Each structure stands twice: as structure tokens, then as C-alpha cells.
Amino acid sequence: MAMNFDQARINMVENQVRPWEVLDARVLEVLGRVRREDFVAAEHQQLAFADLCLPLGHGEVMMKPVVEGRVLQALELKPEDRVLEIGTGSGFLAACMASLAGSVVSVDMHADFTATAGERLRAAGIGNVELATGEAVIEWQPQGQFDAVVVTGAVSSIPERFFGWLKPGGRLLAVRGESPAQQAVLITREGEGRFREETLFETDLPYLAHAKPPRPFVF
φ and ψ at 91, to 5 degrees? Predict the structure, then answer.
């Protein structure tokens, strides 16, 4: 029997995302509308709405739906916001953010991820996402500043350069710490050199390139 993707999407929102304290109506509407099944590999379509991370290749994963919901809610995106996503992955989170914000710039170091995400976004009729291929921790540099920056891979500590990409009042969401007990944190730029930090939830994601914890020194 063919899977009813529309019903599966509704079940994901109502039985997974909403119970995990995601109550923002705009976020729930977007997660119920954007076709998550179109942003996963064909062999994973039956698992598109499962409460688990899906492999993407290169050791990367697609975040759980509940984590995506909490991320979107915490960012509080406005229709005029300019968003930077570090780690395009499948392109699904970029699609959701593009539906909530004015524009999204998304960068990934894997050119095949960028290419595939571009195809999926075009197929979904989403035209306000700009894709780039580059390594963001130490090399790639965006143009201008952003209202929100979201980091979709883990970092042992947040690179200092990321803070410079935030506008005053801008929000940066990253997963920080040591696996398997990493924490999602939201950092708001309150003024020149002043930032406010809030811990949101625990999760576990693969690290961005050049962002793993340093190896302990062994005598």
C-alpha cells in the first residue's frame, strides 16, 4: 500500500513536533505544508517523518523533525528577515525558513549537497534561497549581516567570526558542546560586544568541519 504522505506529515506535526513544545502556529503550518518527503533520498522516503536523524552522506544527517521545529520556533523569523544557514544538508530547513523569512543564504562545503538542494528547492517553487558552496568555519565569508544565523552541524565552541555576521538584535542558533550531550543555544546580539545566551535543549549532531573538540593531550 502506498504511503499517504499528507497524512504522515500531519501526524508528524501533531504527534511529534507539537508535543515537544513547538506551539508557534506559523512554524507548525510550514512543517505541515513543506513536503519533507521531497527533501530526502528516494530510499528514505518511507522514513521521512520518523523521529530520527536520516543519513545524507559525507557523515552528515538530516535533523529530527522535532529538532527542526524547535529551531524554527526559537529563531522567531519575521517576513522581512535575512537568514544565514551554515550547513545546507538536504535543503529542507532552508525551505522552511524561506517560507517564514524574507530571504535565506545557505552554505555547505559539499558541492553535491548544494546541487541537490537547489534542485529540490526549485521543484518546490521556492525562489528566495541563495545557495553557496564553501567551508564556513575558517574560510567562506558571506556578504553583509543577517537577522538570524542557524548552524545545522555541531561545534565544540562557536567560532568568533560567526558573531560578526549578526545584525544588532540578530539571533544565532547553534548546537555546541561534546557528543553525545550537546546543547542547542540561542545567542542574541544586544549591542556592540554584548550578547545574551539561552540554552534551549539537548541533542547530538555530527560536527562541522574544523569544529570538533580538540583531542586531549596524552603523555
Answer: 95, -5
Q: Can you name the CATH fold of 3-201?
A: Rossmann fold (3.40.50)
Residue type, 173: L
> Rounded to 5 degrees, what are φ and ψ at 122?
-65, -40
pTM greater than 0.90 (yes/no): yes
Helices (H), 83-198: 92-100, 111-123, 160-163
The model's pLDDT over 186-200, given as tens digits with 9 standing for 90+, comes to 999 997 779 999 999
- List, as own/partner pairs, every contact residues 76-82 make where C-beta atoms lie below 8 angstroms and the sequence separation is at least 24, other chains included: 76/24, 76/171, 77/101, 77/147, 77/148, 78/102, 78/147, 80/147, 81/146, 81/147, 81/148, 82/144, 82/146, 82/147, 82/148
